[in-house]
Design goal:
alpha+beta; 3 domains; four-stranded mixed β-sheet; 12 strands
Length: about 325
């Protein structure tokens, strides 16, 4: 039953019952009828009250009969409120988790937009510093806290100068572009003060475009240890005399140097290239041209002991594999 029909029906029912009650009260009053030994006038009042109560009862009964929501509200309201409270308690952590997920999604969207900008910049050639790129590498081995702070400050200044030259090459006035977190610097000081020899590697946190005003960086600290010793064979490769052709021989040398660099990186070296003794290739080629043997083994031998942050210099050595 619709709301308007229910209202009209209740009005008609109330009017009918009240009319009947009024007629009944009038007749009881005229007949001087008495109920429960009450005076006729009071009996008429009682009948009127009972009639009003009947109107209310019939209206409420009808509404309860035809309206399910009212029935639920009257008889199950307490249970519903209890269930609602329990649902809210269950919903609260879900809402908090949803907020966390939404924040993560927003963060990922920001990262995605940054990646898109970086991709566009990469295609247009505007990225001057890549994520994870070393900006400055320096050795430090002091145990005096004041000296440590002074050396770290100088390292950061040098890293900032290098960064400025790359990001803003046309701006002659050196500005503070490099941003490092204070707690990272404090951790550096604490670690270095414990003693030993260390290497600080200032690395870019993300890709940097030409002309940017800020470069976020992270200071990596690494133990400064000996990576390779003088006279040590780093890598070796087999080849035949037919490989002495210009292209084949050059490819073999490049492969040997690349393998040596990969081995140094595996040991913890921060160097980005293997330096080859200037006359080493010519000397090897001349030696091989004078020899009739066909199978050789070419070795990359370190010419000096090198630590974590030091460059690695090698010379080539030949071993004959057949007689």
């Amino acid at each position: 039953m619709s709301g308007w029909l229910l209202i009209i029906f209740l009005l008609l029912l109330g009017g009918l019952i009240s009319t009947l009650g009024d007629l009944l009260g009038s007749k009881i009053g005229k007949a001087r009828f008495s109920i429960l030994k009450l005076r006729p006038r009071k009996t008429a009042v009682l009948v009127t009250i009972l009639t009003g109560s009947l109107i209310s009862a019939s209206s409420l009964s009808l509404m309860i009969l035809v309206n399910r929501q009212l029935r639920v509200g009257l008889f199950k309201l307490g249970d519903l409120q209890k269930k609602l409270q329990e649902s809210r308690q269950v919903l609260l952590p879900l809402q908090q988790e949803r907020e966390k997920l939404e924040n993560r999604i927003k963060g990922k969207e920001i990262e995605l937009k940054q990646l898109e900008r970086n991709l566009i910049a990469l295609r247009s050639g505007n990225v001057v510093i890549r994520s994870g790129q070393s900006l400055f590498i320096a050795e430090i081995d002091s145990t005096n806290l004041d000296e440590i702070r002074s050396q770290i400050d100088n390292i950061i200044i040098s890293a900032n100068r290098y960064t400025h030259e790359i990001v803003k090459p046309k701006d002659k006035k050196i500005r503070n572009l490099l941003l490092l977190r204070k707690n990272h610097i404090q951790e550096l000081q604490k670690t270095i003060s414990l003693g030993g020899s260390w290497v600080i590697n200032i690395k870019s946190v993300r890709n940097v475009l030409s002309g940017e005003n800020f470069v976020y960086a992270f200071p990596e600290i690494i133990e400064n240890k000996i990576i390779v010793r003088k006279g040590e064979v780093i890598t070796k490769i087999n080849f035949q005399k037919k490989d002495l052709a210009k292209k084949g021989f050059g490819d073999k040398i490049n492969f040997l140097l690349s393998s040596s660099l990969a081995e140094m990186k595996r040991r913890g070296s921060l160097t980005n290239e293997i330096k080859l003794r200037s006359d080493s290739v010519k000397q090897i080629r001349d030696t091989l041209n004078k020899n009739n043997k066909t199978d050789f083994e070419l070795e990359a031998v370190s010419m000096r002991s090198s630590k974590t942050a030091q460059s690695v210099v090698v010379e080539l050595n030949i071993n004959y594999l057949n007689s």
